[in-house]
Amino acid sequence: MPWRKCKRMDERLRFVARLLEGEKMAALCREFGISRPTGYKVFNRYKDLGLEGLLDRTRRPYRHANRLPFQVERTIVTLRQEHPTWGAVKIREKLIRDFPMVPTPAKSTVHAVLDRHGLIEPRRRRRHKAEGTPLSSTSSPNGLWCADFKGEFRLGNRRYCYPLTISDYSSRFLLACEGLESTQSTFAFAVFERVFKEYGLPQAIRTDNGVPFASPNALFGLSRLSVWWLRLGINLERIKPGHPQQNGRHERLHLTLKKEATRPPSYNFLQQQLRFDEFIEVYNHQRPHQALGGRYPAELYTPSARIYRAPEPPEYPFHDRIVRVTQCGRICIGKRKINLSIVFAGQFVGIREVADKIWLVSFLDFDLGYFDEAAARVEPGANPFASKVLTMSPV
Questions:
Q1: Do 66 and 108 touch, CB atoms closer than 8 A?
Q2: I need a surface site. Which of 27, 44, 264, 306 has the fewest CB within 10 A?
Q3: Which region holds residue 378: left if phi is over 0, alpha if psi is between -120 and 50, else beta?
């Protein structure tokens, strides 16, 4: 018997012996560091089984899930070896036909047998590296907004400040400069909602591929924030990684902001935000802009006619059904749970069968990917946000 088991056995024996001598259960439980229900359990096991009741009980389960008779398991393995392309569904149907007298195992059990014998090739999930999207150019206010976090800096009280800036592409109007405690999406949501309520909605927003504008581990780099923009009818534009010049107008704004409002930094967030607010006022209404012919950004900017309001639930008239994504990012169909992405939590997606037992998952007008009966997750399709390569037509 291992030493640790002997030690536990000795402690239980001393515990029971002192109970038999008349000591109180509550006091003994406190001394031995166990709960009273545990103390009564040990004592009752001793009364029922004697000294054997004080031994450690095996943790081995009474039955094993997916455990089949040896002959049935051997038959499953043989069928797979003879027909390498057959999956769990076909092998199960073959068992039903050839061995009707044997209880038919579930499809998941057949799959588990194949996996246990190394006969399942793991699928490689396609991961999309950030590549940027097509970029637009507009001369109209609210045709395109630019957003980014200016590099963090430390305030006088040693706390880090992360300024979130939003500007209009054509007029250079600075819509917001908010000093935040971090780049978490919760803070960004509040800033964008306030700006949307005050100035309306743009046609598109251009950002880099960092958090919270994008998520490196989600489908096509989408984040909760960018999914919300899509729901509001805002197009996404992302610059190519390592090419900040693609958002050059906004980067130039950051240079001016850094010189005029962050050096030296203020002591706390309240004082620093006052400086940011003063900078917004001067930048928009008092500072002549060379690229605008000496005019002020406020002279060119007008609020958007697209009023901010909560979007209606999307409709999918050409899909078989509409499903709401769970808070853990799954699509639940009956008892099946298919992993999609947590960034779509609470959103409605459309599902359509495009081939035999293969379903397409769509969000708004974007096709996200596919899943089949065997898959427990959505495999991404072609990136709907990537640049499209058009083939040249023959002359």
A1: yes
A2: 264
A3: beta
Backbone torsions φ then ψ of 380, nearest 5 degrees: -65, 145
**Among candidates 279, 225, 214, which has minimal Cα distance to 253?**
279
* Spatial separation of the C-alpha atoms in residues 190 and 269, rounded to whole Å: 17
Structure tokens at 97: 């036909």
Backbone phi, psi, residue 46, to 5°: -65, -45
Q: Does residue 207 contact residue 213 with C-beta atoms inside 8 Å?
A: yes
* CA pair distance 161, 181, nearest whole angstrom: 6
Are 173 and 141 spatial neighbours (Cβ–Cβ below 8 Å)?
A: yes
Q: What is the CATH number of domain 70-116?
A: 1.10.10
3-class SS of residue 15:
helix
- 3-class SS of residue 368: strand
Query: How is domain 145-300 classified at the architecture level of CATH?
Result: 2-Layer Sandwich (3.30)
Could you give the CA distance from residue 37 to residue 193 in angstroms, rounded to a whole number?
53
Mean pLDDT in consecutive groups of 10 residues from the start of the chain, 395 residues = 53 86 87 86 85 71 58 87 87 87 82 84 59 86 95 93 96 96 93 97 95 89 95 94 90 93 94 96 95 94 95 91 94 89 95 88 93 84 70 37
Return d(Cα 224, Cα 230) in angstroms, integer.
Answer: 10
In angstroms, the CA 338 to CA 374 distance is 10
- Placement of tokens 């029971």 in the chain: 16
Identify the burial level of 192 via C-beta atoms within 10 angstroms of its C-beta, where 0-12 means exposed, 13-18 middle and 19 or more buried: buried
Helical (H) or strand (E) element with 363? strand 358-363
pTM over 0.70: no
CB 191 within 8 A of CB 166: yes
Locate the DSSP E strands across 254-341: 321-324, 330-333, 336-339
Q: Which two tokens stand for residue 304?
A: 């958007």
Backbone phi, then psi, for 332, in 5-degree steps?
-105, 120
Which helix (H) or strand (E) element contains residue 162? strand 160-168
